[in-house]
From TrEMBL:
It is a multi-pass membrane protein. It holds the Pfam family DsbD_TM. It is found in: Membrane. One of its GO terms (cellular component) is membrane. Keywords: Cytochrome c-type biogenesis, Membrane, Transmembrane, Transmembrane helix. This is Cytochrome c-type biogenesis protein. The keyword Transmembrane helix applies. Residues 9-212 form the Cytochrome C biogenesis protein transmembrane domain. GO terms for biological process: cytochrome complex assembly. PANTHER family: CYTOCHROME C-TYPE BIOGENESIS PROTEIN HI_1454-RELATED (PTHR31272:SF4). Belongs to the DsbD family. The keyword Transmembrane applies. It comes from Sedimentitalea nanhaiensis.
Length: 244
């Protein structure tokens, strides 16, 4: 495994945060958090006690650990696949670059792939309000969200398989980026409920801009110039070199 650079760590974390802004995650997040905590649906202006907030955060953390388990396992699989196919590194780079460009175009809205515009929520009979239930729901919804957050998640898996990066570490960082907004919502559910539309509008633009950056990254992977981009980022933002 190659060591993950500071650029890779930041990119994976931001990738998780951007996935949270996808149309099938952000609008539903407060409802998920309320159900996981076994609390009433979020209402703008309503107040919660410190104990209710703390319980919501703790149970949401179990939920985050649930979907993180699935994503880290996917990262391990991508690393294993990349190691097995290392002799075709050049061909894998081309294929991975094409996939990343495709995912970026989907995020920009330039092309539409119906399978990536929806989530498939499994009908899991688990009551909210327990750590075990929250973890199981995290496992289940990881698979349900995968089609919708596929562009970013798929790009990280493609980079892992084609570069030999540590997929488990990258996907753990990605999961942290996706999970942190859930914990913030768990802490400030009612305060955020009234601002969700504005957050969603800004998030959609950020999502599209990120898609454009992914197109450039995919081209860099295909042409072998992605390393130059990483070096440029390190020269421009030296602090990235201290991460990791």
């Amino acid at each position: 495994m190659f060591e993950i650079s500071g650029v890779g760590i930041v990119a994976a974390f931001l990738g998780g945060a951007i996935s949270f802004l996808s149309p099938c995650v952000l609008p539903l997040a407060p409802g998920y958090v309320s159900y996981i905590a076994g609390q009433p649906a979020a209402k703008a202006g309503a107040t919660r006690s410190f104990a209710e907030r703390a319980r919501s955060v703790v149970l949401s953390l179990w939920f985050v650990l649930g979907f993180s388990t699935v994503f880290v396992a996917l990262g391990a699989g991508a690393s294993l696949l990349g190691g097995m196919l290392l002799r075709w590194k050049y061909e894998l780079g081309l294929a991975g670059g094409v996939l990343i460009v495709l995912f970026g175009l989907v995020m920009m809205g330039a092309i539409k792939i119906p399978a990536m515009m929806r989530d498939t929520r499994p009908d899991v009979k688990v009551d909210g309000g327990s750590a075990v239930g929250a973890y199981l729901l995290g496992l289940a919804f990881a698979f349900g969200w995968t089609p919708c957050i596929g562009p970013v998640l798929g790009s990280i898996l493609a980079v892992t398989a084609t570069s030999g990066a540590d997929g488990m570490a990258l996907l753990a960082i990605y999961s942290a980026g996706l999970g942190l907004p859930f914990l913030i919502i768990a802490l400030f559910t009612n305060e955020i409920a009234g601002r969700l539309k504005r957050i969603g509008a800004a998030g959609r633009w950020l999502y599209r801009i990120s898609g454009g950056l992914m197109v450039l990254m995919g081209i860099g992977v295909m042409t072998g110039q992605i390393s130059r981009l990483a070096f440029w980022l390190l020269e421009t933002f030296p602090a990235l070199g201290t991460i990791g």
